[in-house]
Design goal:
alpha/beta; binds (2S)-2-hydroxybutanedioic acid; L-aspartate:2-oxoglutarate aminotransferase activity; 2 domains; PyrdxlP-dep_Trfase_small; Aspartate Aminotransferase, domain 2; PyrdxlP-dep_Trfase_major; EC 2.6.1.-; single chain; NHTrfase_class1_PyrdxlP-BS; two-stranded parallel sheet; seven-stranded mixed β-sheet; about 45% helix
């Protein structure tokens, strides 16, 4: 049986995480996987999450099944958090999913049923798992221009030129905010132009919203998705609570579908539930119940928002400190874009050779495309990282 198989490629993010863990050098710097870490290098449980969890332990009376769509209160709260009031709720359906990746998988599988011959368009570059997931769902994958590593900014005119040529046979995967891996994002005005082109060409938006609250704020980060919601009749969105609630291993996400009317939304929802039942039957409840409790309880929600805001502002402070440290050592503004980027990541634009050198000589771990996780950078490491980057890029 297994003679037919050859070794599958390793996921580079998790491979790097294992390599870092095995490195015995003191003072090693982990800028790899997208996990928030405090100054001590820990990823603590948020206090609002801990309180919600304690409440569940104290009050839960059963572990019986919840249902194929999962925790309905959770999904309703996630729809509100992501879409605001941009879409009338009678056109929206949602299912809890195992993480943002699980939500993406559910939606891609659903879209394959709806439009098997569509092409999925992904930004160049994108999260390394996007293209494999779309291919695994059976789609052809193409890339649209997105990032200019020379300037650290979005190639917006090139992007527009590609978007002009889309048709209703295209599915366009958009990062809702905090672009992964580049950190370069569309401005509200740019989102408006993108949405106008999606509307004009009939291309179908699939929005991946994995970092709401990590960029410019919870509401600000939803600008693009809500612009899609106001203007476009049918679309889907995958949201994740891994980062903004810090519940990574609990696998909490939500698959959201928007139909042209309630009757269509019901049909699409029935297909989505059929996909889920045929795959993992139903999602695990614990993490979703934590998030539901927080979003529905005023005091817990306020506490969570304050913690999220502290993480967000720390990431921006890290960005400014790193850009400044590099500038003062290199006497150049080459990396100033790091301070302008938003979210966990920035793509530094270093060669694979330089990235390898930094790992071998300085125990600095970043993805091979030179993506760094700014949220993993303890204050005392910033100066050392700046030294290493400036020396290695000379
Ligand atoms: C990342 O890009 O590092 C995170 O989204 C974690 C993951 O699942 O890849």
């Amino acid at each position: 049986m297994f003679e037919t198989l050859s070794k599958a490629p390793q996921d580079k993010i998790f491979a790097l995480m294992a390599e870092y863990a095995a490195d015995k050098r003191d003072g090693k710097i982990d800028l790899g996987i997208g996990v928030y870490k405090d100054d001590a290098g820990n990823t603590p449980i948020m206090s609002a999450v801990k309180k919600a969890e304690e409440r569940i332990i104290a009050t839960a009376t059963t572990k019986t099944y919840v249902g194929v769509a999962g925790n309905k209160g959770f999904s309703a709260a996630m729809v509100k958090l992501a879409l605001g009031d941009s879409v009338p709720l009678d056109r929206v359906r949602a299912a809890q999913a195992p993480g943002g990746t699980g939500a993406l998988w559910v939606l891609l599988t659903l879209l394959k049923r709806a439009k098997p011959d569509a092409t999925v368009w992904i930004s160049d570059p994108s999260w390394p798992n996007h293209a494999p997931m779309a291919r695994q769902a059976g789609f052809a994958v193409e890339h649209y221009p997105y990032f200019d590593p020379e300037t650290g900014t979005v190639r917006f005119e090139d992007l527009l030129a590609r978007f002009e040529k889309f048709s209703k046979h295209d599915i366009v995967l958009l990062h809702g905010c905090c672009h992964n891996p580049t950190g370069a994002n569309l401005t509200p005005e740019q989102w408006d132009r993108v949405v106008a082109l999606l509307k004009k060409t009939g291309a179908f938006p699939l929005v991946d919203m994995a970092y709401q609250g990590f960029g410019d704020g919870l509401e600000e980060d939803a600008y693009g998705l809500r612009a899609v919601g106001r203007e476009i009749e049918q679309f889907v969105c995958a949201t994740s609570c891994s980062k903004n609630f810090g519940v990574y291993r609990e696998r909490v996400g939500c698959a959201i579908i928007v139909g042209k009317d309630a009757a269509q939304a019901d049909i699409v929802n029935s297909q989505m539930l059929n996909v889920i039942r045929g795959a993992y039957s139903q999602p695990p409840d614990h993490g979703a119940e934590i998030v539901r409790l927080i979003l529905e309880d005023d005091a817990l929600r306020a506490e969570w928002q304050a913690e999220l805001e502290a993480m967000r502002t720390r990431m921006i402070a890290n960005r400014k400190a790193l850009a400044e440290a590099i500038r003062s050592r290199s006497n150049s503004s080459d990396f100033d874009f790091v301070a302008e980027h938003r979210g966990m990541f920035s793509l530094l634009g270093l060669s694979a050779e330089t990235v390898n050198h930094l790992k071998a000589e300085n125990a600095v771990y970043m993805l091979d495309d030179s993506r760094i996780n700014i949220a993993g950078l303890a204050d005392d490491r910033i100066q050392r990282l700046a030294d290493a980057v400036v020396a290695a890029s000379r």
